[in-house]
Amino acid sequence: MRHGIDWNKAQALVAAERAAFTANNPRSQALAAGAAEHLLFGVPMHWMRDWSTPFPLTVAEASGARFRDADGHEYLDFCLGDTGAMFGHSPAPVARAVAAQAARGYTAMLPSEDAARVGALLARRFGMPRWQFALSASDANRFVLRWLRAATGRGKILVFNGCYHGTVDDVFVDLEGGAPVQRASLLGQVHDLTAHTVVVEFNDLAALDAALAAGDVACVLAEPVMTNIGMVLPQAGYWEAAQRIMRKHGALLVLDETHTISSGPGGYARAHGLEPDALVVGKPIGGGLPCAAYGFTEELAGRVERAKRDAPPGHSGVGTTLTANMFTLAAMRANLEEVMTDAAYARMFALAALLADGLRGVIASLGLPWCVTQVGARTEFQFAPRPPLNGSEAGAALDGELEQVIHLYLLNRGLLITPFHNMLLVCPDTAEEDIARLLAAFDGCARALRCPRVFRSSAPPPGSCRP
């Protein structure tokens, strides 16, 4: 038995759901066939083939917590662009700001009036006094690593096993048998990443101490809560002790809050008293437009500026011509001032708690060996009896086959969740009845999949409900 599921039922269910999806979405199927003529993998970005559907679902419009597809079906969106639209699709203040800016220019490689205002808003919100911008969190993380290596004179970085920080090459290193290995999925990489990237398990203070002891690590790049391999929470006291270890060995702390901005208006660090040296926040802060920002403490900002002044003239490898363009800065200002409010977060937290409690209730009522984790507005169910302690445990709980069955079942009932794992987001426009509808569908799917022996024994005889 795998995760308490009857896999004969699962195979029959996914076949029926695939047939239903195909029958109900002829327009999306036709559009997908046309796109295949000119788009690699038939989609504008190959991740769009990673959904559970037989062919890509084409979106026609999106607003608030809902979107409509090309065949006219409406969906409740609990994916929200995998955090890109965390505060809802097309927030009205952002829509007004970008419409106004569209008549005043998009980009000039010069600062707009919004630039200083956005910097001040970020400083007040996150506590970092000095800021720069990027077009994505991937770029922001990449730029921060360059700045910090230059500022410290140290070449190595440390990440946690199973981490995700966008498409930064340096972070595609995992632990296998206690040794660092380059992630096999990384395409076209010709350099040995393990020469400059150290990797340890999250929540392991002894391993962190040992890895930093040589004094050659410029910084630790981390999400304060791991979110992309399945959510992994820090154990009580972990970050306080980890920061002491980093200071002892002279390593800086960079927190990637792109996902954990779900924790509050100032992110997880502000909510829990962490003191990073640098902070990155990506896609949510622009209301859905491509943008990111990264901030430094005053002391680190001084070191970074000295490193740039002391370097020979020429391209630093940091920034692009579209970085901090007028269009995205207008969106960021509107989103920070009018959308990412305390009231919005209070509503989202209440809705997420309702969702998390409801998921736990369904799981408990069916006796499934699954758990639920919540980080502010972000909730996830995992195929493990208790929340994982590190990336290895979280990775072991992943089951792509089971995820796709559940995701497709929900999608066919007008409910979208994140394709890569079982993460669900709520936004200010999500309603309590939306959550009730999701929970009812989740209960129906889990009942359809559950092995009847889960109530009788935690170790069924060989052959029972086998995969």
List keywords for this structure.
four-stranded mixed β-sheet, globular, 39% helix, alpha/beta, 467 residues, seven-stranded mixed β-sheet, Aspartate Aminotransferase, domain 2, Aspartate Aminotransferase, domain 1
Please provide a written account of the structure.
It comes from Pseudoduganella namucuonensis. This is Glutamate-1-semialdehyde 2,1-aminomutase. It holds the Pfam family Aminotran_3. Belongs to the class-III pyridoxal-phosphate-dependent aminotransferase family. With 467 residues, the chain is α/β, with parallel strands linked by helices. The chain has 2 domains: 7-87 and 341-455, Aspartate Aminotransferase, domain 1 (Alpha-Beta Complex); 92-339, 3-Layer(aba) Sandwich (Aspartate Aminotransferase, domain 2), CATH 3.40.640.10. It is built from 14 helices and 16 strands. Strands 4-12-11-10-9-5-8 form a 7-stranded mixed β-sheet, with helices on both faces.
What order do the helices and strands come in, and which of them pair?
Blueprint: H1 7-24, H2 26-35, E1 59-63, E2 66-69, E3 74-77, H3 92-102, H4 113-126, E4 130-134, H5 137-152, E5 156-160, E6 173-176, E7 179-182, E8 197-200, H6 205-212, E9 217-222, H7 238-249, E10 252-256, H8 267-272, E11 278-281, E12 292-296, H9 298-310, H10 326-339, H11 342-366, E13 371-375, E14 378-382, H12 391-397, H13 400-411, E15 415-416, E16 423-425, H14 432-449
Parallel strand pairs: 3-15, 5-8, 5-9, 9-10, 10-11
Antiparallel strand pairs: 1-2, 2-3, 4-12, 6-7, 11-12, 13-14, 14-16
Helix pairs in contact: 1-13, 3-10, 4-10, 5-9, 6-7, 11-14
